[in-house]
Write a structure and sequence with these properties.
Blueprint (H helix, E strand, L loop, with lengths): L44 H5 L14 E6 L19 H14 L2 E5 L17 H17 L4 E4 L10 E3 L3 E6 L4 E8 L6 E4 L11 E2 L3 E4 L3 H8 L6 E4 L10 E4 L2 E4 L7 E9 L7 E9 L8 H7 L3 H4 L7 E7 L8 H12 L4 E7 L3 H5 L3 H19 L4 H10 L5 H8 L3 H9 L2 H16 L4 H11 L8 E4 L3
Parallel strand pairs: 1-2, 2-3, 6-8, 6-9, 9-10, 10-12, 15-16
Antiparallel strand pairs: 1-13, 3-7, 4-7, 5-6, 11-12, 13-14, 15-17
Helix pairs in contact: 7-10, 9-12, 9-13, 10-11
């Protein structure tokens, strides 16, 4: 599998969550399809593309499903995402239970779950609040029956967890006669594993599943480690969200550089392999915790008394950019859904349009490319000169894609001569080339990143769009 870019993947299913905007500004992603957009992907198409846990009991399903989280940093509640409030431990508990009902399942946290510190966006610097969030998350993981938790000796984990001195454990699923070796690789002596049980030697009839490795090493060290495994191995390697690789293979190892989104659940399904020389195939995806996932009442009851303390403080206005490819985007509901949701938020969220321009569109002279360029340039010029009317323009253009743009200008009270003059002096080309330079600077043109998102969501590369914060 090729190296891939960050799985910025969460397609909103509805626009309701945008009213909660004002919290996190450190990374939203949205994909678009010919349906409702929804974050960071519909929870629309994205949620549809991901296999829903527990909704089907497929013949020939995985022999083992490994669910994993990492770098949660005490985040207990759904995020205040501009498009849809994703995540929350109550939804995670429901999702985990559904996977367990489907078949053999292990649940692992690969570290960084404690609240506080520079990577905790919900921390306000109060040690007492961070300690409460850490304690509540430890209790929540106990109720969700996490099998293994990577942490430190000081973690508030209690029975049935025991700290493992050597960082290794053989996990047993007796009812499925399955054994799973797991090993921690860390660069410091303080990092350790907590496990619910430590397995006895395997029985004669026990099947040995592929080993699991939790790597708390940096990316280059993890890559070297992965190359040493002589058998199919799942390597879970929490990394900073700026890492250029989120999923790749090295020899027989499948490495998941999970970037710790608390809004989703990592899923690795292990299947018997039909390929010569391999015993297993490891298939990985990210399962978003959307509004469609019911919240577990037990976990809600755990958090309810602490809501006044846990509720994050409001933040200033969020400015977002919707990056999309030139083409018939105006006919898709995605862009207009985002703009309508932003409008309904009042002044909490501002969304502007930017264009993802692959090099072939800049260099080709085909009629289709010239048409796409002209349409994108028209949008860019209208947004530049009439920002207050741009949402109305997008709605009109979506409803009347075949009518001359001058009709829309007259209907909305825009000066057609002003727009025509800007087009005549090449202002549209200037704006689009500026978008292209910004796209390259941010790395939004990564073919590997787009390929990885397309594979995970089942959406064609040319249909993908990104919803990102202005401050990137």
């Amino acid at each position: 599998m090729k190296p891939s870019g960050p799985p910025a993947a969460i397609l909103p299913r509805t626009a309701r969550g945008i009213r909660a905007a004002g919290r996190r500004q450190n990374g939203f992603r949205a994909l678009r399809h010919a349906a409702v957009v929804l974050p960071i992907l519909s929870m629309l198409p994205f949620a549809q593309a991901a296999t829903r846990a527990g909704e089907e009991d497929r013949a020939g399903g995985p022999i083992l499903t490994v669910l994993f989280t990492a770098e949660i940093h005490g985040r207990l509640l759904p995020c205040d995402c501009p498009i849809q409030p994703l995540g929350g431990i109550a939804r995670r508990a429901t999702r985990i239970e559904r996977y367990r009902r489907r078949g053999p399942t292990l649940v692992i946290d690969a570290g960084g779950w404690q609240a506080g510190g520079a990577r905790d966006p919900d921390s306000d610097g109060r040690p007492q609040r961070d300690a409460l969030r850490t304690e509540l998350l430890a209790r929540a993981m106990t109720r969700m029956a996490y099998d293994v938790v990577c942490g430190t000796p000081d973690d508030p984990l209690k029975e049935p967890y025991a700290r493992l001195a050597d960082g290794a454990v053989r996990l047993r699923l007796p009812e499925q006669a399955l054994e799973v070796p797991l090993q921690l690789y860390a660069g410091d002596a303080k990092t350790c594993l907590w496990a619910r049980t430590s397995a006895a030697p395997a029985d004669a009839g026990t099947t040995r599943a592929p080993p699991i490795a939790i790597s708390r090493l940096d990316e280059s060290e993890t890559a070297r480690l992965a190359a040493t495994f002589a058998e199919e191995t799942l390597v879970i390697a929490p990394v900073a969200s700026a890492s250029p690789r989120m999923l790749w293979t090295s020899g027989k190892a499948t490495v998941v550089g999970f970037d710790g989104r608390s809004e989703s659940l990592g899923v690795a399904e292990i299947h018997p392999s039909t390929r010569e020389g391999r015993r297993f195939e490891i298939r990985v995806r990210i399962d978003p915790l959307t509004e469609n996932v019911p919240e577990n009442p037990d976990l809600l009851a755990l958090l309810e008394p602490h809501y006044p303390t846990l509720k994050p403080r409001g933040r200033r206005q969020i400015e977002m950019e919707y990056w999309t490819r030139p083409g018939p985007f105006a006919r898709e509901p995605a862009l207009n859904d985002v703009l309508r949701a932003a409008r309904e938020s009042g002044d909490r969220v501002l969304v502007s349009l930017r264009f993802y321009l692959p090099e072939e569109i800049l260099s080709t002279r085909s009629i289709q490319s010239r048409t796409e360029w002209a349409e994108a340039g028209l949008y860019a010029v209208v947004q530049r000169h009439y920002p207050e009317r741009f949402q109305a323009w997008c709605a009109w253009r979506a409803a009347h894609p075949d009518r001359p743009w001058e009709d829309g200008a007259r209907a909305l009270g825009l000066l057609a001569a002003r727009i025509r003059g800007a087009l005549a002096v090449g202002e549209d080309a200037s704006l689009l080339r500026a978008d292209h330079r910004e796209m390259v600077r941010r790395g939004l043109d990564s073919a590997d990143a787009l390929d990885e998102m397309a594979q995970r969501t089942g959406i064609a590369v040319e249909s993908l769009s990104l919803l990102v914060p202005v401050a990137v």
